[in-house]
Design brief:
This protein is α+β, with helices and mostly antiparallel strands. It has one domain: Jelly Rolls (Sandwich), CATH 2.60.120.10. Helix content is about 20%, strand content about 25%. The protein contains six helices and twelve strands. The protein has a five-stranded antiparallel sheet. Strands 8-7-10 form a three-stranded antiparallel sheet, with helices on one face. Strands 1-2 form a two-stranded antiparallel sheet. The longest helix is centred in the C-terminal third of the chain and has 13 residues.
Length: about 210
């Protein structure tokens, strides 16, 4: 479970240097909005508009910030997404709304203090500034959930890109995968405010 824990408050104590220009944010030459529509296959991902295989990952990007000029982002489960029980810590996105849609199966969702069980066909809207999180409560969960951000910041998409290839990360792993300036930019707009969902306690309440 340690590997599956999201960034908790310890990450907020990492010392940061002054914010510098970041290549992945400022190198607009590498970004180009598509001139026509496109199809993303079920086995593909396209973080920052680059098509790659989603095999062996924890999630996949279907619609990138590059595709929509930072206005929309969409992601879905991949083959490693729901193999283990767990989920991210309670957090807030300060600049973007988030939408969850359950394609199949069921998951736990928390909005502020309230934890609910969401099932196939359910939609959850999280306005920016709202504390929230989700959790997979089943080992080898066959379910799938779509995640949409509107708008989407490049630094948040980069975080999702790194997560999808590495899974949930602790402080040491984050320090190796991001520069201090990248982490500062990320945490300026995305705040961690509490622990992950207590799955056992939630299920006792929701599934007596």
């Amino acid at each position: 479970m340690e590997r599956r824990k999201f960034l908790l408050t310890s990450l907020l104590t990492v010392p940061f240097t002054a914010l510098a220009k970041l290549n992945f944010l400022t190198d607009r030459k590498a970004w180009a909005k598509p001139e026509k529509g496109f199809i993303v296959k079920a086995s593909e991902s396209r973080f920052f508009g680059k098509k790659t295989s989603s095999k062996g990952t924890y999630g996949r990007c279907m619609l990138s910030s590059v595709d929509t000029e930072n206005q929309l982002y969409m992601s879905a489960s991949a083959d490693l997404s729901n193999k283990e029980v767990g989920g991210p810590a309670l957090h807030i996105h300060h600049k973007d709304d988030e939408i969850f849609y359950v394609v199949s199966g069921e998951f736990l969702i928390q909005i502020n203090e309230e934890v609910s069980l969401i099932k196939k066909g359910d939609t959850v809207f999280i306005p920016r500034g709202t504390a929230h999180t989700f959790a997979n409560h089943l080992v080898e969960n066959p379910g799938e959930m779509l995640t949409i951000h509107q708008p989407i910041s490049p630094e948040l998409e980069k975080f999702y890109d790194v997560f999808c290839h590495n899974g949930y990360m602790n402080e040491e792993q984050m320090g190796k995968l991001f520069t201090k300036d990248e982490l500062k930019t990320l945490l300026a707009n995305n705040t961690f405010v509490g622990p992950p969902i207590d799955i056992e306690a939630a299920l006792k309440t929701l599934k007596p």
